[in-house]
Amino acid sequence: MNQLVGRLFVLDASNNGRIFSMNPDGSDPKTLITGCRLPDGVVVDREKGHLYWTDMGVPTRNDGKIERADLDGRNRTTIVPEGATHTPKQLHLESKSRKLYWSDREGMRVMRSNLDGSHIETLVDSSQGDPRPGADARKWCVGITVDADRGHLYWTQKGPDNGGQGCIFRAGLEIPAGQNAANRKDVAALFEGLPEPIDLELDLKNRHLYWTDRGNPPRGNTVSRTSLEGKLTQEIVLHDLMEGIGIALDVAGDRMFVTDLAGSVYCARLDGSQKRGIGFAQGNLTGVVYTETSTGN
Questions:
Q1: CA dihedral defined by 261, 267, 272, 273, rounded to 10 degrees?
Q2: What's phi and psi for 138, nearest 5 deg?
Q3: pLDDT of residue 1
Q4: How far are the Cα atoms of 161, 164, 246, 274 from residue 216, in angstroms, in the given order?
Q5: With contact defined as beta carbons under 8 Å apart, do 212 and 145 qualify?
Q6: How far apart are CA 121 and CA 241, in angstroms?
Q7: pLDDT, tens digit, 9 for 90 and up, residues 201-248
Q8: Residue 297 above 50 pLDDT?
Q9: How much is the mean pLDDT over the chain?
Q10: What confidence tens digit (pLDDT) does each residue in 248-281 have?
Q11: Is-contact 159 196, C-beta < 8 A?
């Protein structure tokens, strides 16, 4: 009989950047791909057996890209070439529409494309007319997640390092008629004045939005969440990260996985309890994704 087996895929942005995988308890680590330059966001397409990740490139140049490979690291290919997006950060795969969504940091944009990299669109332009690469970190788009059922797009603008000017925004998945990415009127700020918010994830079952923050304690180096029903209230559920970046949720298993730039991978329950380290000194860790694949017995 077939059973579902969980696996983590993690990005390491240190020298000769790599993608590695491991079991949810940290066992059986395997390096799948090397030479990734500055990988940041990662997603899995279970339907096709593909791994997608962003490569930030050099922030002062327009040379970021998005790549794809099989889950075993083979058949690596570039789908969004250099020059098409500036500094791609967190990545989200929306399975119903078969679209990739990502934030472009110095490009000051939220973007999407088809899974083959075609039909690239800019959904949000936060530049306010500034030239790219943008110098104002308040306009840098970093994290991203999507609620396709309710037609919502969520993203972070991190602000300066430890600046207390970070924000989380929400808008519709489609630009309103007669408007464009730069002047759309449906953008709402959900949170302002955050230390330095980075990656986002949605628990659609319980209607919770989670985010990492790499700013200084006590509000930074944390994972927070808010209920999306009723009044939005920040609840810090995880502390003591060392510049927290990536987050992945396993809602069915009541657990989250979090990475930080110090090279640690943590697992905890969705409420932040029972935090434990499952990987240490693994490099400069950025994106992480949890997936389950079917295997025969």
A1: -130
A2: -65, -20
A3: 63
A4: 9, 9, 17, 23
A5: no
A6: 34
A7: 999 999 999 999 999 999 999 999 999 999 999 999 999 999 999 999
A8: no
A9: 96
A10: 999 999 999 999 999 999 999 999 999 999 999 9
A11: yes
pLDDT digits (tens, 9 = 90+) for 136-182: 999 999 999 999 999 999 999 999 999 999 999 999 999 999 999 99
Output the CA–CA distances (angstroms, integers) from residue 164 to 63, 137, 221, 234, in the order listed.
Answer: 29, 11, 13, 15
Who contacts 215 (Cβ-Cβ below 8 Å, separation ≥6)?
A: 161, 162, 163, 164, 166, 194, 195, 196, 221
Nearest to 25 by CA among 293, 295, 291, 279: 279
Pairing of strands 235-238, 222-227: antiparallel
Which CATH number does the domain housing residue 48 bear? 2.120.10.30
6 burial level (CB within 10 Å; 0-12, 13-18, 19+): middle
* Residue-range definition of the domain harbouring residue 253: 2-296
Beta bridge partners of 106: none
- Paired with 144 in beta bridges are 155
Question: For the segment 79-136, what is each residue's pLDDT rounded down to a tens digit?
Answer: 999 999 999 999 999 999 999 999 999 999 999 999 999 999 999 999 999 999 999 9
How many folded domains does the chain comprise?
Answer: 1
**Backbone torsion region of residue 260, taken as left when φ is above 0, otherwise alpha when ψ lies between -120 and 50, otherwise beta:** beta
- Tell me how far CA of residue 74 lies from CA of 19, 21, 51, 142, 253, in angstroms: 12, 14, 10, 28, 29
